Backbone:
């Protein structure tokens, strides 16, 4: 009998500035299929936490940045070899201060037509194809 993979609820901040989107490069991880890949910033929703609160907390922790969370853009489900995620994306706006890269290798601001040039995590790639 096949074991049902644990599905983790994750939220992503699709931060736009003018016509450019904020793309973050993940650090090296023990999962090669997400290690050093690109993603929209965000993270795991903790027990009893709203999507909104998660985004505010995660962006503060990872980037020391205050963001404004706007409308829900949609959701994608994706199964990686070792785990599954349910990823919900929100349109967000960055605060006035510059962010810091506390947990990422690199970042880029890219227009919609350039997004596909990066090596995205598969869930975020699916997000771009369906929502952006």
Residues:
């Amino acid at each position: 009998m096949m074991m049902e993979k644990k599905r983790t609820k994750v939220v992503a901040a699709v931060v736009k500035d003018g016509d450019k989107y904020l793309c973050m490069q993940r650090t090296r991880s023990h999962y090669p299929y997400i290690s050093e890949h690109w993603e929209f910033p965000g993270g795991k929703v903790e027990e009893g936490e709203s999507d909104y609160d998660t985004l505010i907390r995660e962006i503060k922790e990872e980037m020391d940045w205050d963001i404004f969370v706007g409308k829900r853009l949609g959701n994608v489900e994706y199964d990686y070899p070792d785990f599954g995620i349910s990823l919900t994306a929100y349109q967000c706006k960055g605060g006035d201060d510059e962010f810091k890269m506390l947990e990422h290798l690199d970042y880029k601001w890219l227009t919609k037509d350039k997004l596909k040039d990066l090596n995205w995590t598969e869930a975020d790639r699916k997000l771009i194809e369906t929502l952006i």
The two ends are 38 Å apart (CA to CA). Residues 102 and 109 are 17 Å apart (CA to CA).
